[in-house]
Amino acid sequence: LGGASSRAFCQRRRDAQVMKRARSNVVRYAEKEETFDEVAARAAEIKEVIDGLKKFRQRIIDDTTSLAKKIKAPQKKLKEALAKHPDILKIDSSLIELEKELNELGYGQ
Q1: What is the C-alpha to C-alpha distance for residues 17 and 26, in angstroms, rounded to an integer?
Q2: In degrees to the nearest 10, what's the CA dihedral of 23, 24, 25, 26?
Q3: For residue range 22-80, what is the model confidence (pLDDT) as tens digits?
Q4: What is the pTM for the complete model shown?
């Protein structure tokens, strides 16, 4: 009788150790998964912002080009205006920063 209770005690102890390791592994896996999801979500957000900025930049160029054609401005003046356009300059610097951050996250384009 004493041997059976000893075996049962050892079995419960092993079961407790297995459960403890399993919980530990689940917590570690959940932390990794959460971190991965956060990084992936941030990367997706950055890509969305980059796409929006590129579309906005192109719209500025298209609108400025259209206006330049209407007033028959020389091509050289148009290129100068676009090169100095404050919104385009700001967008370009933002794109560089966002692409750098995306590369740091490991989701470079």
Answers
A1: 14
A2: 50
A3: 666 666 665 665 555 788 899 999 999 999 999 999 999 999 999 999 999 999 999 99
A4: 0.65
One-letter-per-residue 3-state SS of the chain: CHHHHHHHHHHHHHHHHHHHHHHHHHHHHHHHHHHHHHHHHHHHHHHHHHHHHHHHHHHHHHHHHHHHHHCCCCHHHHHHHHHHCHHHHHHHHHHHHHHHHHHHHCCCC
Q: Give the Cα separation of 59 and 53 in Å (integer).
A: 10
Structure tokens at 80: 């100068």
* Tokens 């609108």 -> residue: 63
Identity of residue 95 = L
